[in-house]
Amino acid sequence: MRRRTPPPPPPLPQRDGVDPVRVRLPGEGSWATVREHLVERLGAARAPVVDAMLEAGQVVDADGRAVTAETAYTPGTFVWYHRELPPETPVPFPLEIVYRDEHLVVADKPHFLATTPRGSHVVETALARLRRELGLPALGAAHRLDRLTAGLVLFVVRPEDRGAYQTLFRDRRVRKVYEAVAPYDPALALPRTVRSRIVKERGVLAAYEVAGEPNAVSRVELVEHGARGLGRYRLLPATGQTHQLRVHMNALGVPILGDPLYPVVAGPGPAGDFRRPLQLLARELEFTDPVTGRRHLLRSGRVLEAWTAYDRWAAGPRPPDAPRPGAAQ
Asked: In the structure, what pLDDT confidence band is assigned to residue 325 with cuts at 50, 70 and 90?
């Protein structure tokens, strides 16, 4: 098997904890200059932006030299630049550290904060925030949580260790425990293990179940039930399909409170709308460190607000200085 040569390190520093964009110039094509390729790649309407970046010296080659409008196209080489980002609405809730050593950072992520840069969430992400706050530009994520889910996320300090920790999750050697608040149905027999085949199509907001070999397995337990017909559930996913727990709870007839996709796709709310966060929390991570051999059992300090303070959770908008969702009072 032919081994791929890793790309050279970026010659540009991060900006706000975000890496520069790396573009590999394809081996086939009829572009005479790098500019021609970038204009075709980004779209003709972006040509003035490309020209402005080139004129300002904001596009560089592997040696950090500025690419100009006349720089010849060389197949297989790389160029880097920082894309201009639209303003993002700050997520006004703290990102807390529950564990840190020379290899790992385990953060307790709030609701509404994306794990890694993606789509319209770039600077306002857990990874970018941690890189800035901890001064760790090489920090990378070993796995991801949905933006709407709160709780524990594992980040890797050294790039050379990242594969070992990502393999933990790929090989299902991390015990993950989630907590959720959802309607209580006395007719629903629990605990039970749910098995189904889940499909998530690119560009479609909600995942869905189809017939076929199961690729998603979740154990669902009722911890307790109380007033307002609500239950507090303990969820143990054995697999990691997109939206798996949300899909399985909805299939059981007890969709998680605050879910904008299941059972009905409501779509994203307006920017800055932090009302009624999804009542799903990544409560525990348990694993043996593949680098140090230490056994870790880490636990989120957050609580789900719909269980402890339903009226406040359901009331609507919070003032900017209000306690974060899930904050212990």
From this structure: very low
